[in-house]
Design a protein that fits this description.
The structure is a single chain. Strand 2 (144-148) and strand 3 (151-158) form a beta hairpin. The longest helix is centred in the C-terminal third of the chain and has 29 residues, at 277-305. The protein has eleven helices and seven strands. The protein has helices spanning 6-22, 36-53, 71-83, 92-105, 108-120, 234-246, 255-270, 277-305, 311-339, 371-379, 389-400, and strands at 125-128, 144-148, 151-158, 169-175, 186-192, 198-202, 213-223. The protein folds into three domains: 6-88, no CATH class; 125-232, Butyryl-CoA Dehydrogenase, subunit A, domain 2 (Beta Barrel), CATH 2.40.110.10; 247-400, Butyryl-CoA Dehydrogenase, subunit A, domain 3, CATH 1.20.140.10. Helices cover 44% and strands 11% of the residues. It has 414 residues and is α+β, with helices and mostly antiparallel strands. The two termini are 43 Å apart. The protein has a four-stranded antiparallel beta sheet, with no helix packed on it. The protein has a three-stranded mixed beta sheet with strand order 1-4-5.
Length: 414
């Protein structure tokens, strides 16, 4: 049972009051809607308000611009923003991935250079990990960085680079020692994207979005001191970044699925399908799994509050990632089945056109989809990013259950 301290509840009152004062008038009222122009204005102004309020990366230490919140205060902050349906981040990759990585591994000079720009929302980031032949086996990456005086010269290709076409910087995994075992010769670099030698191409998806990109580096450069965690130590640093990505907000992560479940029940009722035993069974399976996800979030929070770092805690992160991503794919298949052929119409779903997790605002006019169908397409990727389900199963099997490691190709290097 999670118990909130009086200090945490006092902080909740502070956050709630700030949201009421700073969100658009009527935002918290049922049925609130904004025009496209109003939504654009809000999206443009909100990051600055978050920064002025000190809510971006509020759990970071005060000396680096955060509020130094406790874990429980951070949970309260996430809960109140979720309750208000208010955006909480300026830039996901900066706030949630590279920022915490720099706090753990970065030099003081790196922290002073990059953290203020992440906090202010002035610097956008992308992640340069996967390559065309190095996805699940990330340590087999081929992109190279060779030191030339005070700069690294980078050559290679990355793929599935989300928001690569908007990013100012890329946190990039490169091979800096080709003669070392594959896990040992990798470095983690912070590379400027707006320079000669960096070419970004959007990969158009079935729903018309192109937020995934492939990035080509041809003699691109970054300063020698932009290595995070030391030369040839990138594998360990990258695992820290992936751990941040795999985490979910303990008491809020399940909520988008709960909202989605309610929309499915509403659609099934409207279409006379609540009496269909197969649909009812699948709806209840989804509901039950959402509750399991909720309880697992509380277990993760309890382990964090107690500072537990045993293998059971490691396994919980891997199993949660497998659980929710595979659950959600099955759930979106259920949503398609409930709507039937109407799922192909661009106005399918709630009257306001919204759907949790949809990429609706990024659609191309030449290939429109409903927000629900966009969420369906996006769900197909969820068992891949942040570590594939197959890799998560290997982690649990080898590190927790003690099963033998998978055999390596003959002559392969660890």
């Amino acid at each position: 049972m999670l118990t909130y301290t009086p200090e945490a509840e006092a902080f909740r009152t502070e956050v709630r009051a700030w949201l009421q004062d700073n969100l658009p008038k009527g935002w918290l009222d049922p049925g609130f809607e904004m025009s496209s122009a109003e939504r654009k204005k809000f999206n443009d102004e909100w990051p600055s308000k978050l920064f002025e309020g000190g809510w971006i990366c509020a759990t970071w230490p005060k000396e680096y611009g955060g509020k130094g919140l406790t874990v429980l205060q951070g949970v309260v902050l996430a809960e109140e923003f979720a309750n208000a349906r208010a955006p909480m981040r300026a830039d996901f990759f900066g706030d949630t991935l590279v920022g915490p990585t720099l706090l753990q591994w970065g030099t003081e000079e790196q922290k002073k250079e990059f953290l203020p720009q992440i906090l202010s929302g002035k610097m956008r980031w992308c992640q340069g990990f996967s390559e065309p032949n190095s996805g699940s086996d990330l340590a087999s990456l081929k992109t190279t960085a060779v030191l030339d005086g005070d700069e690294w010269v980078i050559n290679g290709q990355k793929v599935w680079t989300t928001q690569g076409h908007h990013a100012d910087y890329c946190f990039l995994l490169t091979r800096t020692d080709p003669n070392s075992p594959k896990h040992k010769g990798i470095s983690y670099l912070l590379v400027p994207m707006k320079q000669p030698g960096v070419e970004v191409r959007g990969i158009v998806q079935p729903d018309g979005t192109a937020e995934f990109c492939e990035v080509f580096f041809t003699d691109a450069r970054c300063p020698k001191d932009n290595v995070v965690g030391g030369v040839n130590n990138g594998w360990q640093v990258a695992n820290s970044t992936l751990a941040f990505e795999r985490g979910m907000s303990a008491t809020t992560g399940y909520r988008r699925f709960e909202e989605e479940y309610k929309l499915m029940v509403q659609a099934a009722r409207q279409r006379g399908l609540l009496g269909d035993p197969k649909i009812r069974q699948r709806l209840m399976q989804y509901f039950s799994k959402i509750q399991i996800l909720r309880f697992n979030g509380l277990r993760s929070l309890g382990a964090t509050l107690e500072n537990k770092k045993d293998m059971g805690v490691i396994a919980l992160g891997a199993t949660n990632k497998m659980f929710w991503s595979e659950m959600h794919q099955r759930a979106m298949e259920l949503a398609i089945d409930i709507h039937g052929a109407d799922a192909m119409l661009i106005n399918t779903g709630p009257k306001d056109g919204g759907w949790p997790g949809a990429q609706r605002d990024k659609r191309r006019e030449g290939y429109p989809t409903s927000a629900m169908m966009s969420a369906f397409f996006f769900s197909r990727s969820e068992t891949i990013w942040g570590g594939t389900s197959q890799i998560q199963r290997n982690i649990v099997g080898e590190r927790v259950l003690g099963l033998p490691k998978e055999p390596k190709p003959e002559g392969g290097k660890e």
